[in-house]
From TrEMBL:
UniProt keyword annotations, A-Z: Heme, Iron, Metal-binding, Monooxygenase, Oxidoreductase
PROSITE patterns: CYTOCHROME_P450
The organism's place on the tree of life at top rank: Bacteria
Ranges for region Disordered: 1-43
Protein name as it appears in the record: Cytochrome P450
Species for this entry: Citricoccus parietis
InterPro entries cross-referenced by the UniProt entry: Cyt_P450, Cyt_P450_B, Cyt_P450_CS, Cyt_P450_sf
Amino acid sequence: MTTPHPPSTTTAGTGRCPFTGNSAPEDSGEARQSEWSPDRNETFGSAHADYAALREQNPFPWSADYGGFWAATTYEDILAITQDDELFSTAKQNVVPHVPRASRRPPLHFDPPEHTDYRTAIDPVFRRSVVTEHAGAFRDSARRLVDGMLTESSPDGVRHLAAPFAMDCFASLLGLARDQTREIREIGVRYGFAIQDMDNSVIEECSKRLYEIAREIYDRRLAEDPDPSRDLVAGLHRAALDPDTAITETSAVATIRQLIVAGMGAPQAVLGSCIAHLATDLDLQAHLRAHPEDLPSAIEEMLRLHAPYRVFARTAKRDTVIHGRAVAQDEPIALIFPSANRDETRFEDPDTFVLRRKQNSHLAFGRGSHKCPAATMGRLELLIALEELLARTETFSLAGDIVMMNWLEYGPRSVPLTLRPADGMP
């Protein structure tokens, strides 16, 4: 476990520091000492012990890692930051570590009002009535993948289910042909694992191909003249033709590329966590097989316990004070959503799985203007994947150690499983 260092005496502040009781003196970025470092060698759940220690001892620490950043760990701080677009921006640095880029990738890299133009085009496509049209395709994918796992000699809940399933679902939403679906799955999964390995050459290669795929998707979908209110490409194209929006054809294609990556990363991470959670709780597995009506409630609690986002960041537009710490203009703040979702001041007995938890206002999908537009789709993906996994197995359990992703996502990279098929399954 990573133990937080005591706050440095060189930390700046204009208010009283709530965890020392002292006024923080003037500070310079060069003199500021690192108070915390993310653990690069996590085990499943170990990060939550680190975050609990931070919330108790130093809830808004400075880390010198990744070029330097603040870490917001409490529910209250993260909620306030995500809802204040006047003070905090995603345009300068929206993730930690900062990813150099030749141009901003919409919509995440834009603040309102430009960001609002993208959401106006994107959000209708993710409404429930549209997303549920793809439920059949989602279920076909889940069944094929679970059946494939049952015949694998060394099945893995991420590599054989969570990663390809996330790509299949987003490919369905985009209305891709089978050949495009196959390639986008292969490139998307390869890109995701290259990010985890920080393999820059593969990342660059895959990123370039993802842009090319986005352009091909854009052109092919427009040739089919889909309904802009129900098709992502058509909705973005219609907005690009409107001179009163910030969207252009180039940025519309870039949006498709960015959403492909987003549509892969978070669903894969949280589905992998759900599989790992259930693989370690056979009683919960048995309950959900006997009472499938409880699965939506169980998913909400697993979303709270295993929120995937922790590198999304905001940058201060001007000097400000957060939790008694002086944050300078242009300093990035990582939003540690997994910590906020286990904040003991917000959730009673926060580390315990509680089915049908009351007032479960978790932040797994973010909050504010940048709240995940695909929350409804994400919940449906989890529901269908877990329904099929539970229905097609008598039981499943861990067959080895869970390997976690690196800092870039919270979730497992590998969940080795032993599966016992249900009656009638291969």
